[in-house]
Amino acid sequence: MSERRLDLAQTSVLIVEPNVRLHRVYRDALTAFGTGRISTVPDWDGALARFTEERPHLAFVEVLDEERRAVGLDWIRRVRRDFPFPSRAVPIVASSALTTSKTVCEARNAGANDFMKKPFGVGDLFRQITRVVEFVRPFVVDRAYVGPCRRTQAEGHQGPERRYAKQLRGGSILGQGLQPA
């Protein structure tokens, strides 16, 4: 099986991570992947300002602060609800060392595209990016939820509002930056 290659040269990634030691891990790995621009921010308020200024193509967001408050989940909800398109549809990967099913479910319900558990390796980070690139989900805007479609499989449901495999698979993230090579 051949190794996947991604062209990330035109891609901007925002890392929202209070543990500044992890900034280097993210930065080194993303640089090795050929990522065009990498921004790291240690706090969620600063991340909102950076998100507005830089309009990244992808964001990795720690969901819990030192007191285990769900500040990152609030950040994700705010981006999804308060920002205009295309910014609100930027893929967001939530991350945390606390990976209970409740935490993962809350991240998905907040609007995260995916969840990455810590600690993670370079391969895990690459798989997350590849997964977000190759599994582009339709974007949902509803009173109760704003974010990527939470259905993960196209098969099964045969009703009038089923999702087609073509809609759930393939394509690129908003047609910019992230592209399979």
From TrEMBL:
Pfam families the record matches: Response_reg (PF00072)
Domain Response regulatory: 12-133
SMART domains per record: REC
Superkingdom classification of source: Bacteria
InterPro entries: CheY-like_superfamily (IPR011006), Sig_transdc_resp-reg_receiver (IPR001789)
GO process annotations (BP): phosphorelay signal transduction system
Protein name: Response regulator
